[in-house]
Each structure stands twice: as C-alpha cells, then as structure tokens.
Write a structure and sequence with these properties.
The complex is a heterodimer of chains A (278) and B (128).
Chain A lengths: L2 H29 L9 E4 L20 H16 L25 E5 L3 E6 L5 E5 L16 E7 L9 E7 L21 E10 L2 E9 L7 E10 L18 E4 L2 E6 L4 E4 L13
Parallel strand pairs in A: 4-5
Antiparallel strand pairs in A: 1-9, 2-3, 3-4, 5-6, 6-7, 7-8, 8-9, 10-11, 11-12
Chain B lengths: L1 H20 L15 E11 L6 E7 L5 E7 L3 H6 L12 E8 L6 E8 L13
Parallel strand pairs in B: 3-5
Antiparallel strand pairs in B: 1-2, 1-4, 2-3, 4-5
Classes of the chains: A alpha+beta (278), B alpha+beta (128).
Chain lengths: 278, 128
Amino acid sequence: MNIFNRTFFFSVLVFLQTACTQSNEITGQETAIQYPDWSGQWSRIGSLNWEPEGYAVAGPPPLTPEYQARREEFQSQRDQGMLVGDPPANCLPPGMPRVMTMSFPFELVITPNTTYILADWESAVRRIFTDGRDWPDYMLPEFNGYSIGQWHDENDDGVYDMLSVETRAIKGPRSFDSTAVVAHDNNQTVVLEEFRRIDEETLEDKITTIDDALTGPWTVQRRYSHTPFSQDILWVEYVCAEGNRHLNLGEEWYFINKEEGTLEPTRDGQPRMVPVYD
Amino acid sequence: MAKKLLGTVFLSTLLYLFSLEIFAHHSVAIYDAENPLQLTGKVVEWQFTNPHVFILLSVEDDQGKEVTWNLEGSNTSLMLRRGWRPDTLVPGDEIIVRFNPLHSGAPGGNFREVFNPDGTAFDPSSKR
C-alpha cells in the first residue's frame, strides 16, 4: 500500500469512526427523555377551598358517619365563633393534601432526582423524589409527608409530561380545607397525585386522598395558572407566627389583644381573660 | 339612574365576592359576617404582618372613652399586590373602616373595606 492509498484508507477509517461516534451521540440524545420546563410562577385557579371547582371530579368528601358528625359539630361550634377543625387558623401548616389548594403562588423546580414544590404559603417545601428509590424503613411523619414520584411521557414525544406522586407519612392534625373536614386522627393518609400541564397556561394536579375519615378514595382536581419567569414575579414571605392573634386553649378559642395584654372572647358568654399578677 | 344603581350593585357584589376571597385561607368563624359594622377613628398602629395585617383603630365610644379596635385584614401577599405597604397607614390617619365584628362583642373584627373621611374609597397608592 503506497502512502497515498494508506492515507486514503486512514482518512476513510477516521471519517467512518467520527460518523459512527456522532451517530451514537445523536441517537443517545434522541433516546434520553427530556424534563419539561415548568418554571415561572403558578397561582391557584378558583376558590381557596376545594369547593366548588375541586369537587367536580368526585363530589364532596365521602365522610364516614363518625367524621360527618364531627364536621357538623365543628360547624355548630363555628357558628358560635370558634375556629375549630381548621389547624392553620393558629399557624399549624396546612399539610397534604390541603397545601395544594395553594392559597398563595408556588414554584416548581425540576431536577432529575427531585422535583421541588416551593409554596409561599408557610414557606412550605415539598420534595418529590424521582430517583427511583423505594420507601425507607422508617419515615418521620411531617405535615407534607414523604413523596416519591415518577415521570411519564404519555404522548411519547420524548419529553416527560406527567408526574405521578405518592405521599405517605403525613403528620396531623390536618383539615382538607377550611370547611371543617378533617383528616382521621390516625394520620394514615395516603395521597396520590398526577401533575399535567394541560395547556401552555395551565397546570393540573389530580389528587386522590385515601384516609380513614373517608368511606373511599376521594379525588379532586386543582388547576393553576402560569406566569412565565420574569423579574416582575413577586414572591412574598409568609410567617404565620409573626402576627397571629388566634389562640386555642383547651376547648376555648381566644382573640389575642396584644396591646392590652388580654385574651378577648370570640363567642357569646365566654369570659375575657385578664392576667392577674401577685 | 337605574343603570347607575345597577352598576353600583354589580360593583358592590364584585367587591363583596372579592373581599370574601381575600380572607379565607382559614375559617373566619369568629367574625359575624351577617352584622357588619362601620366605625370612624384614628389609626393607632398599622401592622403589616402575616398571617394577616391589622389596623389598630382608636374610636370614641358612647361614653366618650377612647377604645382601640383590633381589625384584622388579609395577608401581606395579597395586600402587597393591591398596593398596600408597611407605611400605607400611619398613626393619626383618620379613616372609616367597614368590618365584620367578633361574635362576642369585644372590640375586634375583620375589616373588609377602608374609606377616607369623606366617604370615598381609600386608595393605598395615594400615600406613595
């Protein structure tokens, strides 16, 4: 083989190797499913409670007789001026699934291992682990629970478009919203979710709650409107303890009068509490 | 006239629905929404805090005694978006406040609307 033929041979070899490598790289890029861009700000559409929009899928929560009676008792006490059956009223976090009513806007941060939901409400963070892990042997109960998720490419276009999530180990006390529907005292709640961006402007979370206060799984849907990322987006800190005036002592509820140093009654016939110093 | 009245009713309904919305991330059961009150007084303090803002309003009662009313509003997130700031009200400002009082009759409530002394709607941006 003369030098010309040898050079030509190696040139062809290098070309083929390069082409082959590039082809593999392109193939690799094509087969790796991309994560969606759900950045920006998401704001709830509709009421602060699930009703009526969120009840469109399955109707009101199917309460067991015990928890229906409890709800009616709470409603009767509320008519008298008590904030019963509503833990966030004195600054407990809303927890799952109520946090997803999203009183205030939230942000989604998607990474391959974890998707973060950063809510302005109580500055709550939800971590949804998408790294393929299994449930740990022990999970310390927390108000937002422990969430494991899985991405899906429902339309096979190479971009994930649905995030399914299961949440367990949820701490109480919790209410489903502010309408006196509370989760069971045993806190064995499991929440299943499916997040989809149903159009450019709208994200939907289909939420199925399994809880012993309910006669069966209860599915609601929540939609959120999109504001694309910009410097004009407003995020506002929310620290409930800063100025909370509602106090629960035993069976009673009081209104804190900071200036007078007293506890004002919230219902008829309830005595005002004034500190006495010896 | 009828058109104007209709417009006012429509606007009032909208405002009512809107005002209900701004204060319900927890129950408002301690306040009596069916018997709202309106008081004129002077601002003692404007607290721009969460979970809700407060107007401390000094009002003269029937016996001529100054009573401070603790009037709870919405959260800072929504108030900020509507133009309210930590310095929107200052001590001494005279305002009219419409609010839902505590069921108990104690001097507290959930404020829904704020007006200038001449009865016009208070515009928070007017203070900037």
